[in-house]
Amino acid sequence: FMLEVRLSCVKAFSLDARWHGPNAAVIFQWLQMMQLAGLEQALEAWLFGSQFASRARAVDAAAVLLGQACAEVEECGMLRTILKVAQLAGNFLNAAMAEGSHTGAAAGFHVDALLKLKDVHSTRARSPTLLHVVAREVARQHPAADGLAAALPSLEAAAQLDLPLAQAELA
User: Fold this and answer.
1) Fewest 10 Å CB contacts: which of 4, 18, 47, 89?
2) Confidence tier at 20 by pLDDT (50, 70, 90)
């Protein structure tokens, strides 16, 4: 797009015989080159080629970071425990609410349901939320763990990636 704008500016420029600025010769050469067939496509190809290596390195770095984050998520026992405890808690609550139905036997859940754990608590005053219960159980099962952030060091950086931009670079 920028190349197109620059070329249209050069095409629109008219060289007056009275104009003798320091760049007059360069502009005159550009005006002569504009008459060459396929110049615009050649310049676009040159621009693409000159930027290719840096763009390829950026996409490669993003792919490596995303791969690291995926591997960390797959191998994280603490995350697996969090998901398992959250599912068990949800199944327990659903089974208690609807006895005699199959609602307490879910094989999975939507990940965004984890955000609701902090909103679920007992009817007793000052009771801990379901999030507290899940955290307590995870801490019991993983007493030596430094926390989820330490177990998933690449995750925050990977979450900042602009995936549509990386996909557009590959297209």
Assistant:
1) 18
2) low
